[in-house]
Amino acid sequence: MNDFSIGVDLGGTNLRIAAVDVGGQLVEKVTLGTKVxxxxxxxxxxxxxxxxxxxxxYKNSAKMxxxxxxxxxxxxxxxxxxxxxxxxxxxxxxxxRAEIERRLTTVVIxxxxxxxxxxxxxxxxxxxxxxxxxxxTLGTGVGGGLVMGGKIWHGMNGMAGEFGHTTVExxxxxxxxxxxxxLEQYASATAVVRMAREAIAQNASSRLAQAAHEDAxxxxxxxxxxxxQGDEDAKRIFRRVGRCIGIVLSxxxxxxxxxxxVIGGGVASAWEAFAPSIFExxxxxxxxxxxxAPPDPLAQxxxxxSHVEPGPGRKTIITRAxxxxxxxxxxxxxxxxxxxxxx
Length: 343
Ligand SMILES: [Zn+2]
Prior knowledge:
The relative contact order is 0.14. The protein folds into 2 domains: 4-119 and 326-342, ATPase, nucleotide binding domain (Nucleotidyltransferase, domain 5); 129-321, Nucleotidyltransferase, domain 5 (2-Layer Sandwich), CATH 3.30.420. By secondary structure, it is an alpha/beta fold. It has 11 helices and 12 strands. Helix 1 packs across helix 2 (96-104), helix 3 (113-124) crosses helix 11 and helix 5 crosses helix 8 (232-256). The chain has a 5-stranded mixed β-sheet, sandwiched between helices. A 5-stranded mixed β-sheet has the order 10-9-8-11-12. The chain has a two-stranded antiparallel ribbon with strand order 5-6. The protein is 40% helix and 19% strand.
């Protein structure tokens, strides 16, 4: 067996722990529910038990390189303090890294969940042929991650990459961050459902209204299903998702000129419904994109290889993620491997 590390993806709903080897093979994955209501001690105990279990199971057959953990929220990289986390109520200013290290009696690497998802896609996914990339993760919220020269770009305090809180509607829907009209309010799963409910309030006899009435778990996926069946109200919602992502990507492409931007998270499954609007916005708004657009940008989104020869004619690729919900797990497991290589 190859050397391996343990990756953890601590989400507001699921807690996933995996042993991943240096070749990117998933050795074993454990999925637990995140019992947020039982408190942070309970969640951390569950996590540490699973880490110990996996580590003990494989460490006699290969070298265990370390533990990487993706956590939702803003992390102070120096202190390992979780400064703020909308998905983990009651964890604000909690010394997450120190608490985990105390339980495991070993060092761990803590990282923002959107950053590890980007790092996973850079290692094994859509951006594996690129050293520089950015990713938007469209989930309950909208996360962002930036990888430069093969390393996560942290900024001064580890807070860089919050693209989800870029303004797309100056007087728009209030956001949990304190701003109004953030991308998160128009492109997250939560936002898709809210926009559907707003449309229902306008037209109570629509198919959306009917679906909301019949479907107890009326979700972004239900609305996507209506969109692919041709429902105009549902299609309009996803066009708005795409337009808002396009506005933010325009600023990113103009300011960063990266070779590849990856769109992941649960809402990215609706790629067909929103991607055309992204490219429409980019063509209209983004000078750097206009100069570097591939002839058929949507063809890049079907999971086709993102490999591009280096050189002056390089094109800007905007594509969907390839690793699905495992991106964060792979990215977290990659962190100690990189740290090991740097030693
Ligand atoms: Zn915001």
